[in-house]
Amino acid sequence: MFGTGTRSLVAACALFIGLAQALAAPADPTLADLDAADREILLGVRHDLSRWSTDREHMADIRARIDGLKVRYPKAYAVRLIDSERQLFEYSSALGFRKGGMSYIPVFLDLHREAPGDARPLYMAAIGYIHTGDYAGGKPWLDKAATLAPDDPWVDLAQALWHGNQLLRPDAVAAAHKALRKSKGDALAMAVAVQRIAHHGGIADQATVTAIVDTMLEVEPDVAILTDALGLLIERYTSNQGQLAAAFDLAGRLDRSPNHDAELKLQLVRTAAFVRDRTGDPEGAAAFDGRLTELVEIESVAERARTLQLNIALGDGDIERAKALVEQGKTAKMRRPWVGWALGAVYKAQRMHKKVVETYEEYDLPADDTSMESRAMTGGREEAKLYHAQMVENEPTNPLRLADYAGFLFHFFGDYEQTIYHGSKAYEMLPDPLLGQRLASAYLARAAHLLEFGNESDARAAYRQAVAYRLDKTYVQQICYPLCEEIGLALDEFRETDL
Q1: Helices in 134-222 by DSSP H: which ranges?
Q2: Any idea which fold 387-493 has?
C-alpha cells in the first residue's frame, strides 16, 4: 500500500484507466451546474479518486466530499457521474474488475444517454466491456468516444487497454504514444502512457528511452507536472526495465532544474534508491537519511519520505533501524493506516507471518501481496489463492501477476499443471530465468507423475521441456518444495538418458 514498487491491488486499480484521470480540463461543460467552489471540490475528488491506493481512510474522505456535493446538487450530472465512478472503484477493488465492469456498464451507458456529448461515460462503459472480455461490445463505444473527444489522452489509453488485453502489442504501443502526445497538464495520463508503452515492449533500447522522455519534455513544460509523472512512474513500477529506464532518464533531466521543491527532492531520492538497489552501490541508509531528514518534516511529502526511509532500512536488512523508524512515525502522529502497514512490513521482514496477519486485521488494512503471503503461510492458502486469481483476472497481460500466481500454486498447492499454464503465459511475455527454473520444476514434476503411470514417452517429453528452460539441476532442487520427491525422481531417472 505504501511501499515503493510494491505490487498490490494498488497497481491493479490504476489500470482501470477510466477512473485514473487527473484534473479535468477547465472548460469541462459538465461542471456548469456547480458554483466555482464546488467545481474545485469535484475536480479534487476526481484527482484523488484517480490516485486512490485502496486506503480506506482516504476513500472515506472521498465519499464524504461526494456526499456533500450530492446534498447540494442532487440532480447534477457531474456529481452522479463521479459518484458512479467511486462506486465502481470500490466495488472493483473488492470483487475484481470483471464483476465491476459487468455491473456498471449499464450505469455509464444511461449517463451517456443523459449527456450524449460527454465522452467520459462512453469510455468508462467501454473499459467495463474490456474487463469482461467482450472486446467487440466495447469497440463501438470507444470509437464514439474518440469522435467526441479526439484530444483526450484517456480515450487513447482506453484504446491501448483494448489492444493490449488482446495481446495486440504494436497497436497498444501506438495508442499509448498517441496518448503521451496529448497528455499536457495531466501527469497521470503521461505516466500511464509511458507505462503502457513499456509494458507492451515499446521501449527496446536507450534511444527509445531518450525519444520518449524528449516527447514528455516537449509536451509538458511544467516541472511540477513532470515531477508528478516521475513519482507515478516510480510508484507504479512492476519490474519493467523500460519503464524504470524512462524514469531514470527523466529524473536526470529534472535534476538539472534550477529549483528543487520538496516533491522533486523526494522523487530524486527515490530514484537514487532504485539505482542503488540495481547497482549494488555501497552508499548506506545513513546517506539517504541525510537527504530525507528535512522531507519528513514537510507535510506534503512526510508520509512518502518516511515510507522510503523504512523501505531502505528493510532492503538493507536493518531490522532494528526499521523498528526505530516505525516508532518515530508513531511519535510524529502518522496516520493509523501508515503505522499498520509499517508494522506489517517489519514483521514480514522477520518472517513473523502470524503477526503480519494480526496487524492487518487490527488496523483494518486492505489485502495486498504482503498480507496474502503471510495469510497463506498461516493456514489461509485458499483465501490467498482467490486473491491471486483476482489479480490475474484484473491484469491478464501482466507477466509478473501470472508468474506470482504460478509460483504460488506450485509452492502452496503443488499444482504443477496450473503452474505450467500460468507460468508459460508469463514466460512468453517476460522470459525471466528464475521463472524458467520454476517452469522446469513443474515439468519435472509432470515427468515424475507420468513415469508413475508407466508413460515413459510423455515423461521424456516433459523432461525435454524442463531442459529447454535451461534446467539448473542444483537450483530446482532448492525451490522444489512441496514436490521435491517427484523432482528428484525425474532427475534421477533421466540423469544419463540421451534426449
Answers
A1: 135-148, 153-164, 169-181, 187-199, 206-219
A2: 1.25.40
Torsion of CA 370, 88, 236, 127, to 10 degrees: 130
Q: How far is CA 184 from the centre of its chain?
A: 23
Extents of the domains making up the chain: 1-150, 387-493
Pair 168, 200: CB distance under 8 Å: no
- The pLDDT value recorded for residue 285 is 61
State the cell numbers at 473. 539441476
Share of the chain above pLDDT 70, in %: 92
Cβ contacts of 218 within 8 Å, gap of 6 or more: none
- Per-residue pLDDT of 145-184, as tens digits, reads 999 999 999 999 999 999 999 989 999 999 999 999 999 9
How far is the CA of 322 from the CAs of 47, 57, 98, 319, 369, in angstroms? 32, 24, 38, 5, 20
Round to whole Å and give the CA distance between 134 and 126.
9
Q: How far apart are CA 16 and CA 146, in angstroms?
A: 18
| Residue 480, CA distances (Å) to 135, 319, 441, 472 in order | 40, 29, 7, 12
C-beta of residue 130 within 8 angstroms of C-beta of residue 393: no
Instruction: Using the predicted structure, report yes or no on whether residue 11 has a pLDDT greater than 50.
Output: no
The model's confidence at residue 498, banded by pLDDT at 50, 70 and 90, is low
Its pTM stands at 0.84
Cα–chain center distance at 472: 31
Q: Is a pLDDT exceeding 80 seen at residue 238?
A: no
Give the separation between CA 351 and CA 67, rounded to whole angstroms: 42
